[in-house]
Amino acid sequence: MTHLIYKIAPRTLWQAAEAKGVFDGAPIDHADGFIHFSTAAQAVETATKHFAGQDDLLLIAVATDRLGDALKYEVSRGADLFPHLYASLPLEAVEWVKPLPLGPDGHQFPEMQ
Length: 113
Prior knowledge:
The protein has 113 residues and is an alpha+beta fold. It has a single domain (4-107), classed as Protein of unknown function DUF952 (ADP-ribosylation fold, Alpha-Beta Barrel). 24% of the residues lie in helices and 36% in strands. It is built from three helices and ten strands; from the N terminus they run βαβαβαβββββββ. It has helices at 11-20, 27-32, 40-50; strands at residues 4-10, 22-23, 35-36, 57-63, 71-75, 81-85, 89-90, 94-100, 102-103, 106-107. It has a three-stranded antiparallel beta sheet. InterPro entries: DUF952 (IPR009297). This is DUF952 domain-containing protein.
């Protein structure tokens, strides 16, 4: 079974990555020197904390086995280990991209593994 991690990104930023053929990250990723990801268990809190009230977002599922040694799990929020990618994200590693609509009670997540 493929293990997935997740990136939340504005649709326009992701569309630019698709046109370029690689995702170099969002402004926060550039500032921190790595691309931030979340596990399935962390994604909802990430959306609440960093994307509250934002619409037109996408949830991007990425296969960890296609990222190599550039993927590191490091301590972050609440002493949890978060996946960080110290490289650009090759689009071949993306399993799927789904809308992350904003509902009355926050973002409406699709099923995640």
